[in-house]
Design brief:
The chain is mainly alpha-helical. Among the domains are: about 40 residues; about 30 residues, no CATH class. The chain contains four helices and two strands, in the order H-H-H-H-E-E. The chain has a two-stranded antiparallel ribbon with strand order 1-2. The radius of gyration is 32 Å and the shape is rod-shaped.
Length: about 110
């Protein structure tokens, strides 16, 4: 058994095949049969080439995710600074050895 070399199709052919499916009354299987291509191949092309860019269906961008990430990173940095400052204040107000700990949390000074 020898395997045949797979056909390679131009981008124009693929786009026109998808356009034919979208604009005609024929089924995908019928269009594939008429063009002499595999039905699964045509379905793959439809998935790639028929993503419409219309005002009714705007494209989804991830810009809002990047903005949210930047905001959260700034907040984490601010909270880390506040935590470190509170640790310094606690160390200043409570001399060494008077700061009790329980489960890693700081409590009031023992005086």
């Amino acid at each position: 058994m020898s395997r045949e070399k797979p056909n390679t199709y131009t981008a124009e052919f693929r786009a026109s095949a998808v356009k034919l499916v979208n604009e005609s009354e024929q089924s995908v299987a019928q269009v594939a049969l008429d063009l002499g291509i595999n039905v699964n191949t045509l379905h793959t092309w439809i998935g790639k080439y028929s993503r419409r860019q219309s005002p009714d269906n705007p494209t989804r961008t991830d810009d809002h995710l990047y903005d949210e990430l930047k905001r959260l990173q700034k907040e984490v940095a601010r909270l880390t600074e506040e935590r470190d400052l509170l640790k310094k204040v606690a160390a200043y107000l409570c001399p060494a050895g008077t700061l009790p700990r329980s489960n890693g949390r700081l409590h009031g000074c023992r005086r």
